[in-house]
Amino acid sequence: MEGTTNVYSLTPLPGSSLFSLPEPQHNSLTNGVKLVEIDLPEAPVVCLDLWCCAGSAWESREESGLAHFLEHMVFKGSAKLESGQFDLHVEALGGNSNAATGFDDVHYHVLIPPEASADALELLLDLVLQPRLDPQDFAMERQVVLEELAQSEDQPEEVAFQELLRQACGNHAYGLPILGRRDALEAHRPEQMAAFHQRRYRSDRCCLAIAGPLAGLHLQPMLNASPLGRLQPSESTASLEPLQLKAGSTRLELPRLEAARLLMAWQLPGAADQDQVMGGDLLTTLLAEGRRSRLVERLRERLRLVESIDLDLNVLEAGCLVLLEAVCEAEHLPAVKREVHQVLLELQDTAPTESELLRARRLVGNGYRFSLEVAGSVAAMVGNSALWGRQHNLEQPLTWLEQWDATRLTQDLIPLLHPERAFTLEAVPA
Amino acid sequence: MNVAISPAVAVRELILPGGCPLHLVERHGPAILSAKLWMRGGSSADAAGARGSAQLLAGVLSRGCGTLSGDALADLVEGCGAGLRCEAAEDGTLISLKCASSDAETLLPLLLQMVNAPWLVDDQIALERQLNLQTLQRQKEDPFQLAHDQLRGLLYGHGPYGHDPLGVDEELCHVQRSHLQTVASQLGGSGAVMVLAGRIPEQVEEMLLKDNAGLQTHTPIRQAGPSGTDGSAFASAEDDTEQLVLMLGATTTPLGTPQALALRLLHCHLGVGMSSRLFVALREEHGLAYDVGVHHPARLGDAPFVFHLSSSSERAAEAMQQLLTEWQRLLEQPISQSDLDLALAKFRGQEALGRQTSSQIADRHALVLGHGLPFDFADRCLEQAKQLTPQDLQQAAQQLLKQPSLSLCGPASAIKAAEAVWQTSFFSR
Q1: Is residue B223 part of a domain?
Q2: Is the ipTM of this complex over 0.90?
Q3: What is the domain extent for residue B331?
Q4: Could you tell me if B290 and B284 are in contact, meaning their C-beta atoms sit under 8 angstroms apart?
Q5: Quick check: is B4 in a domain?
């Protein structure tokens, strides 16, 4: 343990004075669509990132899987663009595009040379907001989505996580698979998808983020006359049902599993409270990031009960989910569970030390700063925030982070990670 | 118009005492520093009967060195919020550090200390070995991993590339400290290179050399790496899955050989992006797969070139047929000029997008320098690629891809259906 006490004094926290973070510019179109631009003069590409509050949580029961299926169908062409034409155009310029569907939202992003960004933006808006949804393409893409589902079902670890969420989240949308139920996918019709698109892709639910070398681009003027500027506001103000994770436990025997898993889920405050999110990030890092974190040190390094132990904070609007995964031999499961409980109970009683906090704060702070090196992740960060009405700049999360101390963690967050508040799933090889 | 490749602000080259070349790539932007120390060797240099030694050693290097115990080292690195990784790949062992530039003075000395003065404590070796054995076991849950391991056996047999860098369980469990000491003493003996990218501190050399006298090594030289086995072969593994995983692959050529560039362009044509040939043919036109692509890592020896996809069992025969058709097309007809232009744009785009962070930049330069290639190798390739014709690509395919091997993993019925298609194919004759 030599060298442990004086390390921190040698290395001051990297403050904002070392380099200043770029400043996001928030605007909105006349119909209310949010626009956020962030100039990154050194970046080789511009990232265009279109966000919409249209994740799987907004589906009705019959619409299961439709949000994600729609994300696939978007790339099959629009009124103006043939299937595949968009990808070809972007990739012929050395750029690339992709999309991702979550519980809360979906986003479509393009990396493109700055000179081509105006063209790419026009095409992207046409593609996402005026999808063709051709019946033949629909039938073909359904096969692809079913293959995606089959591929994930062949990974027993994913099956275990899905089951954890299903039981922990009860009837909440976060307990349902984003890919959808097979029977629902097989029954979907293009008209249903068009209705979902029409209902969810509205001006008050969309946000466009642009990050990269923006000098001289002037992308904003074209937007009001674009399909984005023509979107209508939504007719109803549906909101997400708050998550109410229930405590409990279950055991699952899974074929093809080679190592047992202990999975646990807890609920933390939702993404709207970014201050709490930073606290959650700090706490999960303190507990399970690095060899000197409490859980890794105890379960992997000292007792050698696990191959790995991870604790991830999933930032979600209706309530964040903290998910623990320990990988171990089946015969060690009871001991692993006991020790995880022990670590969490000790945390309830004894506040984190100053050196633990410094370590975790620097890991979170640096991880955040490192992620800002790439235009794509900057666009995603500011785009997602703006979509949900959060307009803080890039510096603000670091300020929140600095303000978390042992007292606040002990009062606000540590009680929420009590073992009794968790839903626990033990998965063993069948 | 194309994605611009951002030039490095300034590059300096030094030689550290003992002979290790040090390249410093100064960049504007955030005060972040990435350092890579690449030492030739890796899992392909594992001794017979001790496969997995290089990776085991790599894992133990950060578990105590110089005056620091494993705990003290972890405290130091994690206390700075830094990342320090040490991993063996097929051709080399790589130590990676990423930190705030202001922590360079604290952390840079670790790089050479880890190599020169590792503690190699028995207890920590036992832990790391147990973790690697558990990982090897757990990986078998993944049907892609099973198909990939099986294909590696077909392509490289018991040769240096024939095993997972993590090792072979029945050999790894016997690797002892004395052997690791021998392997550790050879680190750098076949050449090494260090690359730093980002905001480079003043007196960087002094920092690297604190408490050690440099690394006894030399600039990595050009030298042929391991080769593959000859001929087409087939293997299958039954697994109770919904999908069948298909991998069709051949061993090809080292990075930097004349045909490697043609192959890289074929890789871009076939497997990069949603407009790529395999994506369009198998996913867009036939809906046969979600994930389909090409695996073609850079290697010092004969690199694998692999088509991979997974498809529902009932469509196994169709997927097999389509995969074979796409492979055979490469041999029989040149791609069009417009497809070549598209592949070139993707190649260039990948280069540019792969140089966005300090880590990516350091990593790419360390890799090519470790292969004994020049610092600006990637830029030269971008120039040379413009000269290639569709015929050049076809010739490379005809020479290097003529005898692919097939690995299947999935339900018995699907294997049977796909194997029947394979048996009647051009390649199995």
Answers
A1: no
A2: yes
A3: 234-423
A4: no
A5: no
* Distance of residue B113 Cα from the nearest chain A Cα, in angstroms: 16
| Chain B contact probe: residue of A87, A88, A91 with most B CBs at under 10 A | A91
Query: Looking at the predicted structure, is the pLDDT value of residue A16 above 70?
Result: no
Co-location of B151 and B35 in the same domain: yes
pLDDT score of B5:
65
Output the CA–CA distances (angstroms, integers) from residue B311 to A122, A413, B139, B280, in the order listed: 35, 45, 20, 15
Is there a domain that residue B21 lies in? yes
Q: Which helix (H) or strand (E) holds A231?
A: none
Chain B residues with beta carbon closer than 8 angstroms to that of A363: 78, 81
Mutation to test the A interface, candidates B27, B67, B80, B102, most A Cβ within 10 Å: B80
Mean pLDDT of chain A, nearest integer: 94
Domain boundaries in chain A? 25-222, 242-429
Domain tally for chain B?
Answer: 2
Q: Are A41 and B136 in contact (CB under 8 A)?
A: no
Closest CA to B309 of B339, B336, B286: B286
Among the partner-chain residues A93, A255, A375, the one whose CB lies closest to the CB of B1 is A93
Are residues B399 and B301 part of one domain? yes
pLDDT band of A290, cuts 50, 70, 90? very high
- Give A55 to chain B, closest Cα distance, Å: 20
Residue of B nearest to A73 (CA): B284
Please state the φ and ψ torsions of residue B231, each to the nearest 5 degrees: 85, 165
Q: What pLDDT is stored for residue B2 in this prediction?
A: 63
Mean pLDDT by 10 residues, chain B (429 residues): 64 96 92 97 97 98 97 98 98 98 97 97 98 98 98 97 98 98 97 97 96 94 92 95 98 96 98 97 96 97 98 98 98 98 96 93 97 96 97 98 97 98 90
Which CATH number characterizes residue B396's domain? 3.30.830.10
CA distance B161 to B171: 16
Q: Given strand A248-254, what is the order of strands in its sheet?
A: A248-254, A423-429, A260-268, A320-328, A306-314
Q: Which CATH superfamily is domain A25-222 in?
A: Metalloenzyme, LuxS/M16 peptidase-like (3.30.830.10)
Strands (E), A247-298: 248-254, 260-268
Q: A242-429 domain in CATH 3.30.830.10?
A: yes
Query: Residue A261 above 90 pLDDT?
Result: yes
Q: Residue A292: which residues within 8 A CB-CB, separation 6 or more?
A: A359, B71, B74, B75, B78
Cβ-Cβ contacts under 8 Å, B348 against chain A: 94
